[in-house]
Specification:
Strand order of the largest sheet: 1-2-4-5-6-3
Structural class: alpha+beta
Strand content: 35-45%
Radius of gyration: 15 Å
Distance between the termini: 37 Å
Largest sheet: 6 strands, antiparallel
CATH architecture: Roll
Number of strands: 6
Shape: globular
Length: 161
């Protein structure tokens, strides 16, 4: 799906830290999962970074004495990365709007993600028509693919109108 060169950080490309991400999407603790977004290429792709720590609120229950990051939260990291990419791409046009997840297809989980791992999530725009966007994403820990999916999202007014 991707090559590791696409995962290297290019300091010439835009990036968002946690505060920048909070300006793009409404998520907050404990559900803001992405720590940084790098290599932003508006309308094309971005890389989300999630540092997985033993302090994550889901680990005590998933699973006791064997902490594993839930796959659905890896997919959520993908969604948050692309939501920020959409808002970044649209700029002023995105004011007062929210990106809603619509569908997930072809999700595959290949290896458990555990405390101490750093997820690097490459999200690519497949297409966008009007307010609907389709993406593909791959999550890696070091050189190993741990998850991948294709999914869709819709940007609409914050109040649902």
């Amino acid at each position: 799906m991707t090559t590791m060169t696409e995962f290297s950080t290019d300091p010439k490309l835009p990036m968002l830290d946690t505060n920048g991400i909070k300006e793009m999407i409404p998520h907050r603790y404990p559900f803001l999962l992405v720590d940084r977004i790098v290599n932003i290429m508006p309308g094309q792709q971005a890389v989300g970074i999630k540092n997985v720590t033993s302090n994550e609120p889901f680990f005590p229950g998933h699973f006791p004495n064997h902490p594993v990051m839930p796959g659905v939260l890896i997919i959520e990291c993908m969604a948050q990365t692309t939501a920020a990419l959409v808002v970044y791409t649209l700029g002023e046009e995105a004011k007062g709007k929210v990106v809603y997840f619509m569908s997930v297809d072809e999700a595959r989980f290949r290896k458990p993600v555990v405390p101490g791992d750093t997820l690097r999530i490459l999200c690519k725009v497949l297409r966008n028509r009007a307010n609907v966007w389709k993406f593909t994403a791959e999550a890696r820990v070091e050189d190993t693919v741990v998850a991948e999916a294709t999914y869709a999202a819709m940007i609409m007014n914050e109040k649902g109108a």
